[in-house]
């Protein structure tokens, strides 16, 4: 576990999720139409005004869907190993989530939006108390909320640049206050002169769709083409090969190379690096891993350079790795400076140590800065993770799932390779994008909904409630499809 600030003298006990009726039985998986089915195609045809309408793979019946079973409007039932790119946490229609959504307090939060920094209600303080005393990463002093994970990364990057700029002015003998700048410098700022400070990121990264995070994103050309970008440096990410024992020497060399490259970049931009931004596991880039020792090296180099370490936990946070935050497994000697969150938290934002607590009015502020209704869903999700001991489930069931994937890779080595995972962040590779897409299509026809990542990887993102029975069902499907494709 990372080093942490001293805990509060009296932490409130964990609350319980709302009382709720038990869930009904999950429907049995079956696919009886072509995909998409006729009802789905008819519904999709009415939605062409939506710019993203041509992306859709299914139209969900979210009243019939239950637990890990995704039901579409044609009555097809899928085992959901996708969870909407890891947005889902407790499956469909979890009774605790339904109970809070039906509550009068939730209805009021949903219909009475507030500029939360100025005006809020007691439910917001309930959420903040829970985060401070139980669920925030150890060592964090503040939390900043926005609407989604990409915005959270954008906000964390801004915080890093703000603190870096203020420290540079102080070091030069001036005031950290931007209002104390000379008139010429104020004019330069307002005319978009910007700063010569930079952020360092890693090849293969994905940090969001805003222009700031996109400048630190290096996973797909389609994300970045034709967009302006900040001229920030990028270094190689090691991307461990699997099985780890077989590739130990190769992985060690790749990590050493990456750290040496990072050291050179930090020296090249000495005094100008506001932050080093990295994911504990590169998700969108292809489920690319590195060792705990690598991340400790990144933190050491960033600290020596006076740069913030920002860990992007939008996809890796909230229990999916078997700990509440993935970086708890990295044995960092001190907390990261900033940690971003999103997806399963139902809202986005970042946590910060006291060094990155931005207090000056107007420096870090958005109108909403925290949707009270989504905060209630987040709080309920976290309480349910505790109440149902889902961290243990993810650790134990995740190990079982990974062992099963490794077994499939051993049986079909020319087709399935690089089985890897941490908790319920799981993936494996096929030889090419076409074979990967063929594999996913065949699985969907058999009633298992998985997804893609990188160029040729199958990405598996089970809901946190997924048990051994569902994993065995998924593994049986993957094995059958691999056998079919291998001929």
What does this protein structure show overall?
This protein folds into two domains: 107-386, Aspartate Aminotransferase, domain 2; 390-426 and 433-455 and 477-487. It contains 15 helices and 14 strands. The chain has helices spanning 38-45, 83-86, 95-101, 104-111, 122-135, 149-171, 183-190, 211-215, 221-224, 248-268, 292-304, 372-387, 390-411, 433-445, 468-486, and strands spanning 69-71, 77-80, 142-146, 198-202, 234-235, 273-278, 308-312, 338-341, 348-352, 417-422, 425-429, 448-449, 451-453, 457-460. The strands form three sheets. The protein has a seven-stranded mixed sheet with strand order 3-9-8-7-6-4-5, with helices on both faces. β13 (451-453) and β14 form a beta hairpin. α4 runs antiparallel to α12 and α13 (390-411) packs parallel to α15 (468-486). 47% of the residues are buried.
Which structural class fits the helix and strand makeup? Answer: alpha/beta
From the 3D structure, determine the CATH topology of the largest domain: Aspartate Aminotransferase, domain 2
Number of domains in the coordinates? 2
- DSSP strand count: 14
CATH class wording of the largest domain: Alpha Beta
Rounded to an integer in angstroms, the radius of gyration calculated over CA atoms is 23 Å
Counted by DSSP, the helix tally is: 15
Using the alpha-carbon principal axes, give the shape.
Answer: globular
Q: What is the N-to-C order of secondary-structure elements (H for helix, E for strand)? A: HEEHHHHEHHEHHEHEHEEEHHEEHEEEH
């Amino acid at each position: 576990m990372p080093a942490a600030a001293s805990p509060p003298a009296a932490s409130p006990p964990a609350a319980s999720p709302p009382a709720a009726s038990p869930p009904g039985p999950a429907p049995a998986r079956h696919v009886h139409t072509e995909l998409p089915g006729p009802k789905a195609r008819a519904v999709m045809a009415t939605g062409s005004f939506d710019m993203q309408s041509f992306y859709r793979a299914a139209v969900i019946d979210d009243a019939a869907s239950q637990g890990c079973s995704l039901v579409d409007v044609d009555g097809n039932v899928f085992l959901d190993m996708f969870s909407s790119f890891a947005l889902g946490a407790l499956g469909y229609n979890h009774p605790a989530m339904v109970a809070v959504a039906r509550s009068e307090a939730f209805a009021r939060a949903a219909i009475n939006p507030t500029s939360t920094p100025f005006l809020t209600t007691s439910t917001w303080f309930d959420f903040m108390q829970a985060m401070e005393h139980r669920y925030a990463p150890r060592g964090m002093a503040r939390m900043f909320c926005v609407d989604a994970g990409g915005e959270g990364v954008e906000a964390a990057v801004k915080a890093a640049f703000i603190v870096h700029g203020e420290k540079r002015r102080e070091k030069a003998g001036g005031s950290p206050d931007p209002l104390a700048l000379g008139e010429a410098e104020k004019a330069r700022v307002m005319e978009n002169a910007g700063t010569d400070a930079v952020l360092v990121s890693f090849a293969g990264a994905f940090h969001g769709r805003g222009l700031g995070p996109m400048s630190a994103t290096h996973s797909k050309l389609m994300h970045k083409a034709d967009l302006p970008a900040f001229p920030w440096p990028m270094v190689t990410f090691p991307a461990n090969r699997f099985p780890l024992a077989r590739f130990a020497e190769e992985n060690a060399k790749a990590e050493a190379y990456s750290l040496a490259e990072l050291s050179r970049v930090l020296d090249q931009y000495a005094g100008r690096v506001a932050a080093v931004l990295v994911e504990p596991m590169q998700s969108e880039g292809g489920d690319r891993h590195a060792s705990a020792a690598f991340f400790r090296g990144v933190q050491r180099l960033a600290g020596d350079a006076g740069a913030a370490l920002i860990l992007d936990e939008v996809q890796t946070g909230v229990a999916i790795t078997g700990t509440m935050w993935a970086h708890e497994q990295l044995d960092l000697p001190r907390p990261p400076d900033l940690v971003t969150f999103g997806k399963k938290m139902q809202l986005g934002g970042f946590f910060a140590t006291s060094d990155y607590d931005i207090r000056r009015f107007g420096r870090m502020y958005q109108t909403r800065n925290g949707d009270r209704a989504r905060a209630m869903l987040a709080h309920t999700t976290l309480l349910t993770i505790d109440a149902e001991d889902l961290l243990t489930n993810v650790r134990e069931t995740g190990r079982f799932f990974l062992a099963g994937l490794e077994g499939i890779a051993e049986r079909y080595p020319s087709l399935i390779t690089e089985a890897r995972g941490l908790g319920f962040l799981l993936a494996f590779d096929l030889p090419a994008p076409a074979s990967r897409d063929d594999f996913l299509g065949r699985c969907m026809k058999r009633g298992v909904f998985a997804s893609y990542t990188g160029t040729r990887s199958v990405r598996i993102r089970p809901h946190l409630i997924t048990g051994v029975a569902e994993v065995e069902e998924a593994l049986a499907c993957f094995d059958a499809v691999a056998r079919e494709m291998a001929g």
